[in-house]
Amino acid sequence: MRSIMLAVLLAAAPAAAQQGAAPDYAEVSLSDPAREAQALALMDAIRCVVCQGQPISGSNADLAGDMRRMIRERIAAGESPDQVRAWLVGKYGDWVSFRPEVRGQTAPLWLVPLLALAGGGWLVSRRLRTGRRGSRKQETG
């Protein structure tokens, strides 16, 4: 059992080390600190389409680097972060945003986690009730 745990930890170590790596922004940082701050905030709110669960600000994927470059170019050209976000959502879909807008098409993105949580709560409460009934039968029996 210990050898299995060790093997899992060793397999996960490179991925954990890579996630902690600082992204390289130095090559194309914007000269205006306010615009750079806007770009970085937007990069934290956009999902990497390669890594999926990671923002593009921390991803080492080539596509994430391209997305960071496009964000900086558009903000440098005068677009607002909301306009750039809308452009990215139009290009990659609602899924690319960590906080998609609430509307008919994105309702499943908001409802599925809530339904799963409610269903899990219902299952746990049912299991607890069943366990209490079984212990009462044993006491009376």
TrEMBL record:
The CcmH/CycL/Ccl2/NrfF N-terminal domain, residue ranges: 12-137
Keywords for this protein: Cytochrome c-type biogenesis, Heme, Iron, Membrane, Metal-binding, Signal, Transmembrane, Transmembrane helix
One Pfam family in the UniProt entry: CcmH
Extent of the signal sequence: 1-17
InterPro entries attached to this UniProt entry: C-type_cytochrome_biogenesis, CcmH/CycL/Ccl2/NrfF_N, CcmH/CycL/NrfF/Ccl2_sf
Transmembrane portions of the chain: 107-125
Protein purpose: Possible subunit of a heme lyase.
PANTHER family in UniProt: CYTOCHROME C-TYPE BIOGENESIS PROTEIN CCMH
Family per similarity comment: Belongs to the CcmH/CycL/Ccl2/NrfF family.
The protein, known as: Cytochrome c-type biogenesis protein
Organism encoding this protein: Novosphingobium bradum
